[in-house]
Amino acid sequence: MKNYFSKTSERLSFLAPKQLLFLLPAAAFAQQPATTQKDSTSTKLDEVLVQAVRANNGSPVTFSNVTKEELAPRNLGQDIPLLLNYLPSVVTTTDAGNGIGYTGIRVRGADASRINVTLNGIPYNDAESHGTYWVNMGDFASSAESIQLQRGVGTSTNGAGAFGASLNVLTDAYKEHAGGEIANSFGSYNSRKHTVKFSTGLLNDHFELAGRLSNIESDGYIDRASSSLKSFFLQGTYVNGGTLIKGIAFGGSEKTYQAWNGIDAATMASSRTYNYSGYYIDADGNQRFYKNETDNYWQDQYQLHWNERWSDNWSTNLAVFYTMGKGYYENYRDDATLPAYGIQPLIVGSETIGVSDVITQKWLDNDFFGTTFSTNYKKDNFSATLGGGWNKYEGAHFGKAIWAQYTQNTVPDDRYYDNNATKTDFNVFAKANYTLGGSFSLFGDLQYRTVHYKADNVTEDNEYVIPADDTFNFFNPKAGITYAVNNDNSLYFSYGRGNKEPRRSDYENGSTKPESLNDFELGWRFKKNRSSININGYYMRYKDQLVLTGAINDVGSPIYANSGDSYRAGIEAEATIYAAKWFVIKPNIAVSSNKNIDFYNEGDAGVQNLGNTQIAFSPSVIAGNQLVFVPFKNFQAALLSKYVGEQYMDNLESANAKLPSYFINDINVAYELKLKSVFKSIMFSALINNVLNKEYVSNGYMWGDPYYYPQATRNFLVGVNIKF
Fold first, then answer.
1. Of 55, 314, 575, 706, which cross-links 310 as Cys (Cβ 3.0–4.6 Å)?
2. Is the Cβ–Cβ distance between 363 and 400 less than 8 Å?
3. Strands 531-543 and 346-348
4. Nearest in space to 668 (alpha carbons), one of 86, 16, 80
C-alpha cells in the first residue's frame, strides 16, 4: 500500500463530443483464444472467491465483465487501467504518456481513490490515500482470470467505499493439465515485456503449483519517464470435491523516474515531452537533471483462501491476507533551507550558510493485514450472502536528507520528519435475492462499516499539527428490483447508499468531513444469441463530496475540497452486435451532467456564489467503440476508438482551465498458430496506439496557470506468446 507522505501519485485530473458520426467502436476483444481446459466445476470453485462482491445478470447493478481471453491480444505491457480504457464511462491517463509506469483511471468522473478495488475479494486500495498503484504489480493482467467493473455504488464490498465504481479482479484459476507460456513484446520508447508462466496441472488430481515472472522496461514518451517493473505471482492449489484451498503470493518492485510535474502551455507548444523533474543548476551555472529523481517501491502480498461447497445449497469462503510495502521517492532540491531538513547551518568563519542544495528521500514503510469471509446460500428462487471483513493498516512515514551541498554533518539515517498512522476497518454485509413468479427479482443489501484512523502530524515539515484520531460508523443500505420481460429482455431499478471517510491528504487540507452518496440506477438489458445491449440511467446525489480543486501539492498529488451538495447524472449505453460471422461491433457511450450546486468560491473579491458549476475532470461525453474483424480462423483485427469530451480542471469553469476534447484510434491485430507438436500454440499480436498521430492531453492541473500531461503520439507494441 503506497502513500509515502501525502503522496498519492494518482494524478487523475482528467479528460474530455466531437464528430460522433465518425466515432468508431471500443471495448474489449471478441476473440476467445483457446485456453487450458478445465471442467465447469473447477471454474465455479475459483469464482466463489469473488462471488460475495460480484454482480450477475440478475443483479440490479450496472457492470461490465472482461475475461483474460479478451485482454490477451492487447496485453503487451500496458497497465490494467489502459486495458480497461474502452469500457463505458472510463477515462485513463498515464504519467509517462505511453501506458507503462504510473497510470490512472476515472469512472463517471470519479478518480481512482474513489474506486473500490479488490483482488480475489481482498481490498487493495491504499488505506490512507484510498488510491490504487498498479505500478507496484507490473503485468498483473497476465495473472487475471477475469475483471468486473461495477459503476455507481454497486454491491457491498470490502475496503474503502465505492464512490464512483468498484473493480474486482479474480486471479488465475487452477489448471487441470500441465502447461506454460513464454511471452515477449517490444515497442516504441525502448519498451519491452518478458513473461514466463507455468502450471504443473493437478498432481494426483488434487494439487497444482503455478507461477509467473515478469519484467517490464520502458523509457517512456515523456523525457526520462523511465520504468523498471519486476513482478512475480505464485499460487499453490488443493482441490478435492467441493474443497478449494489456495495459497497465493505476488508482488514486485518498481523504479520510475518522476514525471508527475506536467508542463505549462508554452513548453508544451515547443517541446511536449519536456520533463521538469530533477532540474537544477550546478556550481558552474549549467542546467542539469538529477539522475536519480525516482520513485522506488517494493510490495509483497500474501493470500490464503479456503472455499468449501458444503452442499448444493451452501458454500463458504474464508481468507486471510498480509501486504508488506516499503519504498521512497528521491528529490534534488535546490536552495533549500537547511534547518527544515534537520541539518544545522554550516559556519565558515563569520559566515553562516543556511541555504543549500539538498537530496531528500521520503519513505513509507507499512503493513496491511486482515481477513475476509462469506457464507452463500442458494435454493430454488432464493439466494443470500453474509460476508464482511476486518483489516488493519500500520504505516510509518519519514524523511531523510541524504546529501547537502554546503554541509558535512548530514547523517543519511537521520530523519527530518517521522510520524506514524494506524487504521482499522471492519464491515459486515448481508445480501439476498428472491425471484417472484419467475419474472420479478427482489434484491436487498445491508452493510455496516466502522473505520478508525489515527495519525501523527500529517505533513512532512510539521507545518500543521492536525490530530487525526477519528472513528466513523457507516450504514449502507441497497435495494433493487429486476423484471424479466421475456427471455431476451429485462429491466432493473436500484437504490444504493455509500459513505466514505476522509483521506490522509484531506486532513492536511482541512477537509475532515465524511462524504455520503445516494445512487439511483435504472437499466434495460437485452441479450439474444451472442448479441447484447445494455442501457442505463443514473443519478448520483452527493453530500460533502470531496471534488478535485484542480490544484496539486508539492509532490504532485491532487488537492480536494468539500463541495457541499453535488450530483452526477447520465445515460450509459453499450452493445455487442454480431453483424456477421466475421464482423463484431462493440460501441458504448456515456452522456452526463456533473454539477456542484450553489458552489461558493473565496477569492480576491470575497466569497462568491458561482451557482451550479461543472465538477472538475468530469467530461459530459465519453464514448468508445470497437470494430472486430475475423476474416479467417484464429485471426482477428480490431479498430479501437475513444472519444473524451472537453472538461474543466477546476470547479470555477475558468476559461484557461479547460482541457480540450480528444478522439484517438488504436489498431490491434492477433493471429494464433495452432500446433500439435512441442508447442500448443503461438500467438503473434501487434498494437498501434494513436494510429492517427494525434497530439492530445488526458490530464492536467491548475497551479495559478494550467499545467498538462501530454500523451504519446503514434506508437506501437508487438509481441509473441508461446504456449506449451
1. 314
2. yes
3. unpaired
4. 86
Q: What is the pLDDT of residues 664-684, one digit of tens each?
A: 999 999 999 999 888 999 999
Residue among 127, 268, 333 nearest 697 (CA) = 268
Q: Are strands 263-264 and 489-500 parallel, antiparallel or unpaired?
A: unpaired
Instruction: For residue 234, count other CB atoms closer than 10 A to its CB.
Output: 16
Rounded Cα–Cα distance for residues 570 and 619 (Å): 11
Q: CA 327, CA 299: separation in Å to the nearest integer? A: 8
Distance CA 688, CA 666 (A): 6
Within a 10 A sphere around the Cβ of 188, how many other Cβ atoms? 17
Residue 29: band (very low, low, confident or very high) from pLDDT cuts 50, 70, 90: very low
Sheet containing strand 115-119, strands side by side: 62-67, 144-151, 165-171, 115-119, 122-123
Give the CA distances from residue 27 to residues 117, 585, 641, in Å, rounded to whole numbers and listed in that order: 20, 10, 9
Residues in the chain, overall count = 724
State residue 519's pLDDT score. 96
Given 3.40.50.300, 2.30.110.10, 3.80.30.30, 2.40.170.20, which CATH number is that of 20-723? Answer: 2.40.170.20
State the average pLDDT for the chain.
Answer: 87
User: Three cell numbers at 633?
Assistant: 480462423
Please give the grid coordinates belonging to residue 198: 507455468
What is the 8-class DSSP label of residue 657? Answer: G
